[in-house]
Amino acid sequence: MISNDVVCRSQTLSLCKTLPLINNINSSFSFRRSSLPIKPFKTRVQLKITSSELKWEKERNETEEKVDINKDNINHNVEEFLLGSEEDEAMVPSQEFCLKAHIPNTQKYMDMYKRSIEEPSEFWSEIASSEFYWKKEWNHNQAFNENLDITKGNINIEVANYPNSGRCWEIVDKYKVSVFFTAPTLIRSLMRDGDQHVRRYSRTSLRVLGSAGEPINPTAWRWFYKVVGDSRCPISDTWWQTETGAAMITPIPGAWPLKPGSATFPFFGVKAVIVDEEGKEIEGEGNGYLCIKGSWPGALRTLYGDHERYETTYFKQFPGYYFTGDGCIRDKDGYFWITGRVDDVLNVSGHRIGTAEVESALVSHSHCAEAAVIGIDHEVKGQSIHAFVTLVEGVPQSEELRESLKQTIRTQIGAFAAPDKIHWANELPKTRSGKILRRVLRKIASKQLDEIGDTSTLADPTVLDQLIAQIDS
């Protein structure tokens, strides 16, 4: 079957990463903000699936507080499923979406995943030759790059969110964008601008939303899902690294319920494990270091000119595993929750806490649009917490609001996690790909301004001057 969807990606991501959708293939045209207008470029890509018609059930088990999906029963009415508490909520894809997606039922997927781990050669051979296959109609000599990958059928639109805050949604409506893939930092920025800029446009062409680059906090996830996606578009919140070559932990839209902030489960063939500080695998629920066991297609093989550093960085700390450098929690249902870089873990008065957890608590406050947390050396506590906070548009800065933000953290995490200092920031220092430069914030908070270092990757260098001017406010 052929589709003419358009994939829209914000300018905050510089590389094309294909969403892991076993779904209709996207084909239309592409433009760049700095380019002259171009004519539509068409490529036909066909996907053949041999699986039978999909049937779904949305069922709630009150006693175990989980969502089961079973192919033998169908409930056409409920699109959103809430578990016992908001923290446990799960979003179930609509029947309409599931019928359009070429996704087997949950048990079928789990069986396929198990086989991809136990019999990888046979599994991928079958995927390539019989279960489903790509039929491409294109000239093998035709050049392409990461922004126009005609082998995948993905055409990407890159736009800036100016001259107004509704720019993204204007593009979505104008070009009938079906997949909107961006970074959490832009999602939080769009939240800050307010819902009214989103709701001015229909966005009815949107089919799937995507997030990557850093963990997305549940508050931003819910806004993305409910406001941008009108509670009907699944979110593919992927975890991967440049080094992994592809998405490693990712939702398969339509295959199972989504939990706000969770990257869900490993992709086919990926043996994701959580280990403790001694390198022992943690079974079931647990909190530790995310590692990959065994090899996978696309893994990096060396660092150019420095193979010793490659071995030391990725394999020395936990022998026998690829160490991702990220912390991870696995909940009672087996969902993976990425907690951020382990070198972003703070040690405050003997308490170890990730910066992402504190940032998530801050952003849950109704007046906070975005936050970045860093640790500063402290002679008594080991480290003190400093937070840089960007407020929702129109909200005034005040000492009362600072205290309210601290109280939110005390309530959600504990008194030990309350920041020693909250700095107001009109904007946060970000790279062109949307990453927050926390090392820069650390130097500003420590007033080591002559040690800020290289800032050539900043998207907007003027942000530094604003932050330095505000540091004592």
What's the short version?
With 473 residues, the chain is α/β, with parallel strands linked by helices. It has helices at residues 95-100, 106-118, 120-131, 167-174, 184-193, 196-199, 218-228, 307-315, 355-363, 399-412, 438-445, 462-470, and strands at 6-10, 44-49, 58-61, 66-69, 80-81, 90-91, 132-137, 148-149, 154-159, 177-182, 208-211, 235-237, 272-275, 286-293, 321-330, 336-341, 345-348, 351-354, 368-378, 382-391, 421-424.
Question: Helical content, roughly?
Answer: 10-25%
Question: Low-confidence stretches at least 5 residues in length (pLDDT < 50)?
Answer: 1-87, 130-152
**Major sheet strand order:** 8-9-1-10-11-12
Instruction: Describe the main β-sheet briefly.
Output: 6 strands, mixed
Q: Please, could you describe this protein's structure?
A:
The chain has 473 residues and is an alpha/beta fold. The chain has three domains: 6-54 and 86-237, no CATH class; 272-340, Luciferase, domain 3 (Roll), CATH 2.30.38; 349-470, GMP Synthetase, Chain A, domain 3. Helix content is 24%, strand content 23%. It is built from twelve helices and 21 strands. It has helices at 95-100, 106-118, 120-131, 167-174, 184-193, 196-199, 218-228, 307-315, 355-363, 399-412, 438-445, 462-470; strands spanning 6-10, 44-49, 58-61, 66-69, 80-81, 90-91, 132-137, 148-149, 154-159, 177-182, 208-211, 235-237, 272-275, 286-293, 321-330, 336-341, 345-348, 351-354, 368-378, 382-391, 421-424. A six-stranded mixed β-sheet has the order 8-9-1-10-11-12, with helices on one face. It has a four-stranded antiparallel β-sheet with strand order 13-14-15-16. Helix 2 (106-118) crosses helix 3 (120-131) and helix 5 (184-193) packs across helix 7. The longest helix is centred in the last third of the chain and has 14 residues, at 399-412. Mean pLDDT is 74; it is low at 1-87 and 130-152.
